[in-house]
Design a protein that fits this description.
Keywords: Membrane, Transmembrane, Transmembrane helix. The chain crosses the membrane at residues 6-25, 32-65, 85-105. With 108 residues, the chain is mainly α. The chain has one domain (3-101). Helices cover 81% and strands 0% of the residues. The chain contains five helices and no strands. The longest helix has 31 residues, at 44-74. The radius of gyration is 16 Å and the shape is globular. 29% of the residues are buried.
Length: 108
């Protein structure tokens, strides 16, 4: 599998986590509302969109930490398929509450 396949999976899980996570939505919305007077945001749709975007970005960044540690420990100069698998698995684990919410089986 090429690196693009891994990255598409990482972005897909990040998107699901940003949009449907019952854990992140409240916190990210609060952050955007606190920052909105400085950004001159008055539309609720824009606030929700930025909360989704911030949640997805947070998920992808947090899931990348184990992959970055693996690359540092192995001395890799570039991303390897193993580090991309670690990143994908971390993103999938962090997106698990969002996936259960998406399919409606988690009881959230």
């Amino acid at each position: 599998m090429s690196n693009q396949g891994y990255l598409i999976g990482i972005l897909g899980f990040g998107l699901l986590s940003g949009m449907f996570s019952p854990i992140l939505l409240k916190q990210m919305t609060a952050v955007v509302v606190i920052l909105s007077p400085g950004l001159l945001i008055s539309s609720p749709a824009v606030v929700v969109f930025l909360a989704y975007l911030l949640g997805a970005t947070f998920t992808i960044m947090l899931a990348g930490i184990p992959a970055a540690l693996y690359e540092r420990l192995t001395g890799a100069k570039d991303s390897t398929p193993m580090s991309l698998w670690i990143w994908l698995a971390g993103t999938a684990v962090l997106a698990l509450p969002a996936v259960t919410t998406f399919f409606g089986v988690g009881g959230f």
